[in-house]
Specification:
alpha/beta; 5-stranded parallel beta sheet; 9 helices; Aldo keto reductase family oxidoreductase; NADP_OxRdtase_dom; oxidoreductase activity; NAD(P)_OxRdtase_dom_sf; AKR
Length: 177
């Protein structure tokens, strides 16, 4: 089995990559995930690429084992998933943001981010990541550079002020639907 090939007894998490072509098929797939949880093969299940709040709400309502996390691309075209993130907070679902740098060059170049980066001796990417963490998101990053990985971890040591947060929040609000 795949677990044996991985050398583990269970998976910490299993992710449904995206809703399927119909809600019925999506719920059917979710039921299979729930069976894996019931059998002790998986601890937590979640969903990715679900930018439609009614679809997420239906999956959540139908689920015996609720989604523990939602991984979505975080960018202006979806209004930064404001309503979806609110739903996640209200229901204890961890919102995991990806594509946070590539999709947001306008934010990384913005005055509030640049000012905070200069004042705190940090990169714009670090300031953006810190802001996202302060907003309650889990930021998913990917790099093959050890230096970038260390920068990403150092985000936790940045002394981010309320003024920094509010200025960036106002900048993001310009792009939120």
């Amino acid at each position: 089995t795949s677990l044996k090939n991985l050398g583990v007894e269970y998976l910490d998490s299993l992710l449904l990559h995206s809703p399927l072509r119909s809600l019925e098929k999506t719920i059917e797939a979710w039921r299979c995930f729930e069976e894996a949880v019931d059998e002790g093969l998986v601890r937590f299940i979640g969903l990715s690429n679900c930018s439609d709040l009614p679809t997420l709400q239906c999956i959540y309502a139908a689920a015996r084992h609720k989604p523990r996390f939602l991984q979505n691309r975080f960018y202006a075209d979806t209004g930064y998933d404001a309503e979806i993130r609110d739903f996640c907070v209200e229901n204890g679902v961890v919102y995991q943001a990806f594509w946070t740098l590539t999709a947001n060059p306008h934010i990384l170049r913005s005055s509030p981010v640049s000012r905070a980066a200069s004042r705190l001796e940090a990169s714009p990417a670090q300031i953006w990541y810190r802001y996202l963490l302060e907003k309650g998101m889990m930021v998913l990053t990917g790099t093959s550079s050890q230096a970038h990985m260390e920068e990403d971890v150092d985000v936790l040591t940045i002394d981010f002020s309320r003024e920094d947060f509010d200025a960036i929040d106002n900048e993001v609000a310009k792009y939120t639907l």
